[in-house]
Amino acid sequence: MNRPTGVTLIAIATFSGAAILALGSFAFFFVAVMAISGGDGGDPVSAAIAGMGLAGGFSLLVLAGVAGCLALGVLQLCEWARIVSISCIAIGIACTVVSILTFAGYPVVPLTPMILGHIVVIGAAGWSIAYLARPEVKQVFSGPDFS
């Protein structure tokens, strides 16, 4: 059975997210190295920044690995990957709504572009959930039905 194009698009988007998380991880590690190797590397504030950089970098690297494994599972049409993808996308929508409510009052963040960007993200995520919940897509993930 051929993999539907929508499933491939979702896997590519997940791989892209994993790549962005990995790049963010390396940026955090870079900040940690800069904080330690600077002229004031022994300063307690520099040590705290380095510790936060290492913790953030490691966390993002773990998330990148999880996203990469999830994308591989989607490409291989594993049922667990479809279920986990739907769950993660729903959590992402909830976090996006919280982000809108959190940053709406800040004068530094322009309200209209922020809301438009969040609407695009929520729309793409909603489409992904609706697509993965379709009966024909469920059947592709569950394998052939021999009954």
Class based on secondary structure composition and strand pairing: mainly alpha
Question: Which whole number gives the mean pLDDT?
Answer: 91
Radius of gyration: 20 Å
By DSSP (H or I, 4+ residues per run), the number of helices equals: 5
> Major beta sheet, specifics?
none
What's the total count of β strands?
Answer: 0
Amount of helix: over 70%
Please state the overall shape, judged from the principal axes of the Cα atoms: flat
Sequence stretches where pLDDT stays below 50 over 5 or more residues = none
Order of helices and strands: HHHHH
User: Distance between the terminal alpha carbons, to the nearest Å?
Assistant: 17 Å
Strand content: under 5%
Task: Tell me what the structure shows.
The chain has 147 residues and is an all-alpha fold. Helix content is 82%, strand content 0%. It contains 5 helices and no strands. The radius of gyration is 20 Å and the shape is flat. The chain starts with a helix and ends in a 5-residue tail after the last helix. The mean pLDDT is 91.
Any chance you could write out the topology, listing elements then pairs?
Elements: H1 5-37, H2 44-75, H3 79-103, H4 111-132, H5 135-142
Helix pairs in contact: 1-2, 2-3, 3-4
Keywords summarizing the entry:
single chain, 147 residues, mainly alpha
